[in-house]
């Protein structure tokens, strides 16, 4: 059996391609929208992608199943156990518990494991020449992770009760049917917000998890649920939107990426695209020194899609400011993965073109931690805004700082004074750059980014407070 | 923990890179000589390769540890338990049972598991934040495979006794210390000749193997050994040579591949390189229709290195005939992996250059299975030579055929008559092409390749015999 | 001024991209249908393709102007001087003599130079900061080549009279307006059939051509025309078709190549695509040893499109047999360039899949020149068919051979006896392989390809005849 | 004849590969040190590089002839007419005037055309089947450019007299032997400092230049020389060094680039490489917002090598700060081209690693032109330093600014006050960033970069002065 695990950093998504060496047919499980990787892999390994399977309706990325179907003609197999509301229209086959799929010598069996979502399936893969009774591995999607289980709180408070109960049953009534030695391949790795504390290993076994995962330790249901929900990180605002997009079926992109149109500095200056949002993906330092007024900075990197989902509006077309045209495919792929499809183009000639046109520039002050420390010891210190997560904040912060999670800044803006300099700090300066650009765009005039963030603060031995 | 499994098809080698996300240090386990893959991976993932580990002295490929050390400065860690004879000179640290290595949060512990070789180590990898007592996974090298164990018979009959006994002990005394749920990552996959019947899945667990692997079923030692050795495929002649090369330390290649020199048809015709062997890697059909007299055909593909190891002499420089210069790096990499380093160059302009120079051509007759069937029903049928493995032969063959394993043809040549047409058959025509080219090169004048081989014979419903 | 000349080997097409460094606007002249090269170049050099220009309606390849327009939004500028019949519908601007186009500091002026076609334009490019009166260079399309002029005989005997007269006037009345030192960039290079004897240099000057090109030597019109037409090679049958396709406007391909569908050997054997033609692009030797009955062999290489235009029917869908899937894009691009758009897919698993299925095989005998020589000296020699051009034939051929240009074989088939072995010879064996495959496909049973062709025959010192 | 012109942007170097299609031998003319391009081209086109020719001892880049010889075994052909001092030791053949080289049908003849240097050769290329008397083209090196001639003033005032006289003779006594229609392929294009005003077209003809190039207009020698030298831009300091390197023969690099070693932030902070210079190639904005104290900024781009030659010392090892490891090969290639070979490595993790380690940061203030304008109208305006060329300065500058060519800043540092804020302006901000980083590194505390530079100043309609 051919087995390939593919990782998308940042969103920390695992997708899979499993093939039968005899028939040369392959199934792809939980693809993202940028399906070229799988098309290329199938070509190079000599497989035909004939089936596409989903474990559940994803909340953190747009499903690539419809896209891959359009490119290959493969059939899509999804759970029907969440009802019509959660059954994507592009499905060719709607499955119930224990339905299966044959691929040469392989059998893939759908096991209903609700909890993260109502319809969630775990796929048990049987390597039939070795055993027809015991699966070789489980594709557990967002039900069971390395070191964790999928969170049941993404569909709102009401659903949370139902889902948490289902999750408890899936963990303690469904999973026990499978032996300790079963391999487990999850839908996410470390960094994903679909769980609380995912481990970095790409796979695990049921026995290892039973022994070492707090989430699999048997307890009374109420206690287990309380422990699970304690300290759960907040979910990005875009998650509920993603679920809708996936349940309704996303737009097909096709082989050509959008956003390839170069737009002149003059076009941008005169806002030819009136309602457009300017997304600047240059490094935080470059943005700090010179930016187009009103633009939002999310530096290019694995975390771009998550933060784009947190802070960008879904109803405004996007224009990109990038370092070089070669960056375009990567940026656009990141945005498409979280459903930000309306990308109008990019600033031709980059920020240089804007600068040499003599248009106005915006700046964010940069501070080293030593400079911030000095400012804090002077008469009128800045307002220190810490935009990290709750857990990071609790592990230690700058004395006197105020904590607002970066993803909630738009909602809690009234807590940030406009008449004082604001120094934004995060772990390293990345999230702070997003926050400073946002504050600038809504009229804060004196905003600074503490470069190196709390990592630098700690490395420099500066004082920490814990609440 | 960063975990990457890399597969080399044909030789069916698994190598690994494991990294500690904090320190960004990585260890590479059992690399092949073409180390660019790991250099590129480390670069793209932001890791520094600081350590190289071996499980044992390999028999089927040249170790890339010395090469990788030369390119990275990493230290090499090998077993010293086979004595000085089996301790490569390029090692920086020579290990005993239970020695270990720390890489940030990871601990890698050397477990002595002799049997395939005297010095063989299994590496137990501890993901210490989750458990300091139980390893997350075992890198079992050629000790334990998916569905099989490593063969103890590669070092000759005398050593076989010792090794088989040790293997029994490793399986039934060492391995039981690890729980069922331990993940197992072996050194080879399906197709490798380092075991009898390796499975195609890239990993497994101890429990799955204990339950479904015949090799792990408890029996009295003598019986277990007899079962293990029964039906063991013969090992390629080059295996013993590889062991010597690895034990002594191979030559460093450096970043530039050898063999890049174009040689004219006239150079080849006049044998400017007197002792050179001409290796033609074009498809079997192309070779059959027109070849340089005396050349050996091993068509480019994953099995090229194994067959090169079987049939090519190690003391003659090689000149290549390839379809196009773009194939050169792949061919040369294949040869380097099995220690065929002395590659002089390639025929400039390909076979066209030879043809248009008006030099003599050699041909192998091609036969469809229908044509062979007709010939066999006529008065003077050809001598049908089946060059497959013993197991394939026993599963059914052409009535009246004679069986000589392709790798043993040079030794058993006297069994093949020179005064009759010889029709060579294998599984599909690949091995038959190697054999026909060899027969031609030693003076057999009427040789044919049965295209499609036994696959075609069976598909066409022609009669089968079993002994 | 940015200046890039792009060469397509085989069809020997020169296309151009010229850019204005200030405005970063670029014009592309005479693109082929595979426009990715220009899109990539524009991206990497920072230009926007804003204009597309044609010199004339091409006969030897499908114009890529419509394709490039669809991908860039650029405007297309063509000659209207051939009347509506020769004005492509995708044109945005239809030009008359001396119309021009401004691109920043550049001026491009359309000069009517009929002769190869009625509407033919030469583009004079003025580097205006240096001179507004004298062009820096001429883009002469198929009017003026290095060492030759474009042929006036492609539109039939009647038009030939008109065009030859116009060509004489273009050469001796229009061209003299430009000084000796004008650079000349033509639309084709050596190997193109749009002229008689094109030189291999990529550019020239008017003065060099006036001094050394036989076609520019002043003579009485009748004599000049007679000399020009003497020894003109025959034009491929597909030329007239291409003109129609270009004049009507070709289909838009888009970014994804057709023909990517793998088809099983069983699909082909059972002719699921009833009317399909199987095109085998493997090397001539591979085809000779084993082929699907009825398939046509045009080995992959620069000359594939020309020969595909010569010998393939335009009304049958095509299925490909290729060495490896990686060859697919190149093969498909070749076919698209000459308008063979209906490509259904390719044989999955290559010829191996056909062979191992046990399906019947077809073979072409291969002969070295020495073997042919021996056969000719025996009692019943084969019928030797020479498929080279008239000029090659006249320069020397095998005594007793019969000459039929490979492109005319279908028309003159009755000249080839069916009851004798036929040995086909060309320059090296390439064209002979096409011819042998054709003969096989129409029922000739004993056909052989003389490998190395006349090059080998001469190199071996075998006897030559001249008529 | 195969003809390929290769352009290196920034240094604006043209190198050439010319091949004979029959013998498949090729000559490369004036290669740079990064010879992979030519190796790849030769491979893909099926040529063997058998000869390497130089036009002269280059001043602006390190010759790649020795490197290419080491990789191919080709012979190197150089002029001996400058005497032993100017004859590189790696030459295989030392030529005199009218010596020639045969390459199949091509003849390449060395024409002594001194003036730019003593030994300078122009190579006349004869396409012998067309004409044995008149060359098809001239490779004019740094003797004759599009729109200009090579400068005679690079070897010091004394040599300038001799060279200027020789140049006059080469132009008016040697060149007239060749007809107007001769094509001219020069050694440099627009942007090179080896001439005064090179045109952007990649080639020209003698006639076009005779008619439109001021440098070819016949005048009395003294007047011609005076005009030629008037307004000559100053030559970079590194030119004289390059000449020495080339005359003595540069070090061979081999296929692996130096500088691949990642160095930790801690290594840099503790200056483990004591004498090292830190070269930061990030965009000017990124550098402005956060930099390692003492580092020099030359943003990655085509002009990096010229400015590296201007401002970097040749006796200090270099450590790089780059945006991403993928930039490394480009940066290193740029440095090698101008002989900066001692590259120790790069900052692992980029500037982020420095920032999160809590190390001190340096900043350059950025100003828009509007902000500078406001500052100039206030009480204590900054010292405005204009670092452009003389010609740019004279075409208009900011009233009250002081002009020091960026390449001369180190020598004229005493003209820049340390006790006032310094605002540096150039054309767009690129050169200003280099200058500000230098000023910072030598202790100027208040330095700002006027982003957009004079382009922005003019676009914004701000007042201009001319002296």
UniProtKB/TrEMBL annotation, chains A, B, C, D:
Protein name in UniProt: MBL fold metallo-hydrolase
Claim: Metal-binding is one of the keywords in the record: yes
Example of a GO MF term: metal ion binding
BP GO terms, sorted: glutathione metabolic process; hydrogen sulfide metabolic process
Pfam families named among the record's database cross-references: Lactamase_B (PF00753), Rhodanese (PF00581)
SMART domains assigned: Lactamase_B (SM00849), RHOD (SM00450)
InterPro entries: Metallo-B-lactamas, Mito_Persulfide_Diox, POD-like_MBL-fold, Rhodanese-like_dom, Rhodanese-like_dom_sf, RibonucZ/Hydroxyglut_hydro
Matches recorded under Gene3D superfamilies: Rhodanese-like domain, Ribonuclease Z/Hydroxyacylglutathione hydrolase-like
Domain of life of the organism encoding this protein: Bacteria
Domain Rhodanese: residue ranges: 272-363, 378-466
Keyword Ribosomal protein in annotation: no
Alphabetical UniProt keywords: Hydrolase, Metal-binding
């Amino acid at each position: 059996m051919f087995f390939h695990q593919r990782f998308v950093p940042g969103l920390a998504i695992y997708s899979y391609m499993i093939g039968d060496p005899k028939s040369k047919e392959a199934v792809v499980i939980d693809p993202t929208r940028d399906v070229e990787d799988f098309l290329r892999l199938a070509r190079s390994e000599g497989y035909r992608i004939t089936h596409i399977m989903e474990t559940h309706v994803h909340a953190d990325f747009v499903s690539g199943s419809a896209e891959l179907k359009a490119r290959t003609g493969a059939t899509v197999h999804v759970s029907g156990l969440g009802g019509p509301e959660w059954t994507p229209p592009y499905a060719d086959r709607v499955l119930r518990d224990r339905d299966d799929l044959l691929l040469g010598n392989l059998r893939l069996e759908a096991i209903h494991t609700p909890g993260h979502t109502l319809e969630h399936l775990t796929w048990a893969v049987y390597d039939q020449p070795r055993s027809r009774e015991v699966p070789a591995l489980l594709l557990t999607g967002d039900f069971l992770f390395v070191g964790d289980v999928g969170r049941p709180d993404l569909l709102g408070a009401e659903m949370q009760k139902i889902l948490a109960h289902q999750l408890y049953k899936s963990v303690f009534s469904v999973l026990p049917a499978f032996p300790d030695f079963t391999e487990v391949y999850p839908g996410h790795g470390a960094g994903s917000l679909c769980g609380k504390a995912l481990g970095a290993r790409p796979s695990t076994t049921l026995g290892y998890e039973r022994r070492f995962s707090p989430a699999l330790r048997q307890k009374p249901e109420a206690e287990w649920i309380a422990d699970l929900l304690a300290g759960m990180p907040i979910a990005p605002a875009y998650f509920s939107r993603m679920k809708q997009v996936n349940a309704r079926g996303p737009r097909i992109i096709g082989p050509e990426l959008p956003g390839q149109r170069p737009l002149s500095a003059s076009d941008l200056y005169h806002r030819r695209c009136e309602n457009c949002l300017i997304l600047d993906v240059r490094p935080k330092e470059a943005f700090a020194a010179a930016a187009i007024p009103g633009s939002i900075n999310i530096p290019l990197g694995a975390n771009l899609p998550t933060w784009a989902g947190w802070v960008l509006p879904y109803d405004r077309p996007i224009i990109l400011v990038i370092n070089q045209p070669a960056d375009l495919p990567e940026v656009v792929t990141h945005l498409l993965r979280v459903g930000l499809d309306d990308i109008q183009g990019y600033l031709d000639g980059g920020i240089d073109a804007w600068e040499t046109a003599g248009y106005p520039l915006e700046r964010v002050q940069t501070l080293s931690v030593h400079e911030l420390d000095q400012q804090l010891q002077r008469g009128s210190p800045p307002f220190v805004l810490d935009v990290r997560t709750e857990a990071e904040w609790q592990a230690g912060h700058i004395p006197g700082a105020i904590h607002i999670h970066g993803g909630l800044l738009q909602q809690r803006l009234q807590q940030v004074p406009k008449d004082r300099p604001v120094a934004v700090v995060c772990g390293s300066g990345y999230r702070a750059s997003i926050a400073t650009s946002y504050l600038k765009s809504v009229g804060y005039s004196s905003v600074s980014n503490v470069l190196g963030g709390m990592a630098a603060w700690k490395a420099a031995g500066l004082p920490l407070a814990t609440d």
